[in-house]
Specification:
9 strands, 257 residues, 30% helix, alpha/beta, seven-stranded mixed β-sheet, Rossmann fold, two-stranded antiparallel sheet, Helicase, Ruva Protein, domain 3
C-alpha cells in the first residue's frame, strides 16, 4: 500500500507498522458494534477493522487526498466515509443517535480537543482507543500527586477509567514525529452524573490548574466557599494533590449567590 504523505497543518503522522496497527484495533472492547475511526488517513487501522464483521464502522477524515485514497482502496467503505472535521461535526447524530466507540491515530495538535468533545458526549461514547503523543497519554492516565496530573486527567477520570496500553517509537510513522507516542484506552465508568453541578465542577478544575503553583486558597479566590462543608486544610493544597472526589467536595462547598 502506498502511503500518502500528510499535510503539515493536519499534525498527522501515519502509522506504517502493521503489528502495532493490529494491536490497536484488537484493543477495542469485544462488545463494540458501532465504531467511528477518526483520521483514517491511508487506512492502516481501517483495513484491520473491516476484517471484523461485528463492527459497524464509519470513518471521518478532513483531508481530501486521504478521502480519495480511502474511496479507491476500500470500496467496502462506500457510504461510510464522512468528509469533515470531527471537532465541528454534529457527532451526536451518528449511528442513528445510538452509542458508539471511537478509535484512531489522532492528530497530535488536536488530540486533547478530541477528548474534550468526547466528554461533552460521554453519555453516547462508552470507549475511546487512540494513539496520542506519549506526554499527553501520560497526562491523561496520571494520578493525583504527579506533575503530569492536570485538567484533562481530572475531567476524564471523573467519567472514564483510563488504561495506558503501550508506548510506540517514532520510527513506525510516516513522517516520524520528534516524540514518542502511546496508545491508551478510555472506558466509561459507572458514574452517570457526578455528585455536583458538572459545569461548576469543570470550571473549578480548570481554574485550579490554571494557577497550579498556587495553593487552592489563592487559585480559587474567585469562589466563595462554605468553610463547614470543606475538607480539613484542603485549601492549603495545590490542584495536583486533589482527587476527583476532592474536586467534587470543593464544588459542593461553593456558595451560590
Amino acid at each position: 500500500m502506498n502511503y500518502v504523505r500528510p499535510k503539515k497543518h493536519l499534525g498527522q503522522h501515519f502509522l506504517k507498522d502493521e503489528n502495532i496497527a493490529r494491536e490497536i484495533t484488537l484493543s477495542i472492547d469485544e462488545s463494540t458494534t458501532n465504531l467511528l475511526e477518526i483520521g483514517p488517513g491511508t487506512g492502516v487501522l481501517t483495513k484491520h477493522l473491516l476484517k471484523n464483521e461485528r463492527l459497524n464502522l464509519n470513518v471521518i477524515e478532513i483531508d481530501t487526498e486521504s478521502v480519495e485514497f480511502l474511496k479507491t482502496n476500500f470500496p467496502e467503505l462506500e457510504g461510510r466515509i464522512i468528509m469533515g472535521d470531527f471537532l465541528h461535526f454534529p457527532i451526536e447524530n451518528l449511528f442513528n443517535q445510538e452509542s458508539y466507540s471511537i478509535i484512531g491515530n489522532f492528530p497530535y495538535n488536536i488530540s486533547s480537543q478530541i477528548l474534550f468533545k468526547v466528554l461533552e458526549h460521554r453519555s453516547q461514547i462508552p470507549e475511546v482507543v487512540g494513539m496520542f503523543q506519549k506526554e499527553v497519554a501520560e497526562r491523561i492516565a496520571s494520578k493525583p500527586g504527579k506533575k503530569t496530573y492536570g485538567i484533562l486527567s481530572v475531567l476524564l477520570q471523573a467519567y472514564y477509567d483510563i488504561e495506558y496500553l503501550f508506548t510506540v517509537e517514532p520510527h513506525v510513522f510516516v513522517p516520524p514525529p520528534k516524540v514518542k507516542s502511546a496508545v491508551i484506552r478510555v472506558r466509561r465508568n459507572n458514574v452517570k452524573q457526578i455528585n455536583c453541578d458538572d459545569k461548576l465542577f469543570f470550571r473549578i478544575v480548570k481554574t485550579a490548574f490554571n494557577q497550579r503553583r498556587k495553593t487552592l486558597r489563592n487559585a480559587l479566590s474567585v469562589f466563595n466557599f462554605d468553610s463547614e462543608k470543606l475538607a480539613t486544610d484542603i485549601l492549603t493544597k495545590r490542584a495536583e494533590q486533589l482527587s476527583v472526589e476532592d474536586f467534587v467536595g470543593l464544588c459542593n462547598a461553593v456558595i451560590i449567590n
